[in-house]
Amino acid sequence: MGKNNTLHKSMAASRFLWSTGQNEKIVLACFLQNIGLSISKNIEKHDKIGSKFLKQMGFSPEIYEPIGLHVQAKRYLYTVDPMFSQKMSMESKMFFNSTQKIMSENEVRKFILSPYANISQVIRHAYDLEYTQDSFQFDFCNILYNYLIDETK
């Protein structure tokens, strides 16, 4: 997946979540979910790499934990929801089929016990659906600024 397309999808998914009333931390986690791709060339572990980086940078668990689960969330949804794969973008399907697999029953049980499993699924749904660039009004810079100001108080 190209960097421009990843950024476009992250912005579109974040705009969508913002338009549905999700809180700033969920919107920010959605936007940053693929930050690991900018830090490392290890595509298979970009979720864990991004999560660890954001934790080290001082972001809250509400942001870095769902990011660390977003690949598992995709595998979970692909495993338990037959409609999910039909809603995925073609690029997302191709990436999934080439690098990932459905979850075992044991992996499903472990995933749903995570306190951030539900948030990671919300983010995953938003990211994997197709949106147009101008679908929603969105001021991401304002959200990021307000979040960073709140975190430094």
What can you tell me about this protein's structure?
This protein is mainly alpha-helical. It has helices spanning 3-19, 24-32, 36-39, 46-56, 61-80, 84-87, 90-99, 105-112, 117-128, 140-151. Helix 2 (24-32) crosses helix 9 and helix 4 (46-56) runs antiparallel to helix 5. The longest helix has 20 residues, at 61-80. The model is unreliable at 131-138 (pLDDT under 50).
Mean pLDDT over all positions: 82
**Broad shape:** globular
> Which sheet architecture does the biggest sheet show?
none
**Tally of extended strands?**
0
What value does the Rg take, in angstroms?
Answer: 15 Å
Order of helices and strands: HHHHHHHHHH
Instruction: Tell me the helix content.
Output: 55-70%
Tally of helical segments = 10
Q: How far apart lie the N and C ends?
A: 37 Å
The proportion of strand residues reads under 5%
Instruction: List segments where confidence is low: pLDDT < 50 over at least 5 consecutive residues.
Output: 131-138
Structural class by SSE content:
mainly alpha
Topology:
Layout: H1 3-19, H2 24-32, H3 36-39, H4 46-56, H5 61-80, H6 84-87, H7 90-99, H8 105-112, H9 117-128, H10 140-151
Offer a few descriptive terms.
single chain; 153 residues; mainly alpha
Task: Give the gist of this structure.
The chain is an all-alpha fold. Helices cover 70% and strands 0% of the residues.
